[in-house]
Predict the 3D structure of the following.
Amino acid sequence: MDQLGTLAETFFDWGSMRSAISDLLTTGVPNTLILAVTSAVIGTVLGLLLAVAGIARTRWLRWPARVYTDVFRGLPAAVTILLIGVGLAPQGMQIWGPDPYPLGVLALSLIAAAYFGEIFRSGIQSVEAGQFEAARALGFSHAAALRLIIIPLGVRRVLPAWVNQLIALIKDSSLIYFLGLTADQRDLFRIGQDSAATTGNESALVLAGLFYLLLTVPLTHLVNVIDRRLRNGRQLRNGRRPRNERRGDGERTAGTSAPEAPSVPGSSPAPEGAARV
């Protein structure tokens, strides 16, 4: 029992949590979200460019995109952050001053771009060739067909993977502490670590972990919702009803059927697959 009490006091001491919760809410959560969202936006734009370059016809675009993707996906995030945050510090001081925060955002954005680019490339290549051929038959140029039809379709298909990578980016933002942030720039992890180092108690770090869970678990469930809706949409396009509707049909008693919609005199039945208002 003494050991259990010691563990509870070490990891779940309410006094230590209470002293850190204000900083976690007012400083840690906003900075973590700023790092993750800003890096996700920049990484998404760069990732789309990498994806288009990765499927380009010319190898002078395709090869650099693939080399970039392999390098930034192969390096540990901590190594990339240190190389950029420390190696580019003199140039960063000339642009932003001594603040390491922009270099941290840059490092996270470059890492995210490699992963987003591979996600988008796989989504674009999953679009059926008939979609592109139909767009060209309608008079779209090659670039317009990619920009207006193929890329939107491909991106929509990989939204669950994109959200998963956003979750990873939220967690990777904790590595920015390597660059030595100021007190008002600290993220959740750094605040929890500082409190644990000051008090000798890990409860604040546990509380920081709970805040990370509050940010990431809803996104995890959002991935499942998006994935389910995308699968249901594909089933409808293929002429099949979603599983939940088929399950509802099985619950009907034998010999009963769904009521038919009343017909309008003088109207013809709508062709199968046509949209109904």
User: Anything to note?
Assistant: The chain has one domain: 9-243. The longest helix spans residues 14-54. DSSP finds twelve helices and no strands in the chain.
